[in-house]
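Quick log. Single chain, no ligands specified.
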Amino acid sequence: MADAPLNPALRQVAEQYLGRSLLPQEAQTLMAFQQKTQNPSAQAPIQQARQQTQHAISNGHHHANANMRDLLSSIQASSSQALQVQEAEEQAILKLLEGTQSLAELRPSSLQPAMNALQPGSQLALSQIAEHLSNLARQEVEQCFQQYFGPLSAQLQEVVMKLQIKDAVPNSAAPAVPPAPAPQPTALEMPAAPNAQMAPTSTPAISATQNMADASPAPAANAPTADVHIPPAPPSMQ
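-> predicted structure:
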């Protein structure tokens, strides 16, 4: 069998790699490599290695797919089990809520015997539900009270404030001025008694002099007594 000529494409690749033309010895070496690769006995290991690689890749795909299927199955089983547990806990919570008669029974201390069968997360959720229901009930009561009794309460507060202001005004006012004494009637205004004689015109002066004498301080023991002569009253006119 004659030697096949060197493949031009293989020569071109070698020359481009070396950057120059091939020498005769290099051309013979490249020719031997070409003959070796074209020999069927030499291609058998390459084909076998290729088949082994493809078989390994195929086995890897099958193994990966099997692992993915197992993982998905375990996830689905766990999810289904978790959903069943959650549903059972929800049913237990609903049963507890339906069995309570007042909000006081929803306190954690009152629900402690029935909550022992629940998970800690469910116990916390039940406590939060009870607190939320208590807040809703309190808000509803306050809203109803403000709606029905709010205006009446505001009116009562307004009336009480007005009464307090009214009671505080007299206490803070200035004291009242006492009334002036009634004027005493004079001698001229007094009515004359029947069958009485007319009083002398100098009687008021005499009375005033006597009053002044009575109001003056008593003289001392050693002081001389003043000689006070009161003129006699004129004869009264009949």
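Confidence is low (pLDDT under 50) at residues 193-206, 215-224.
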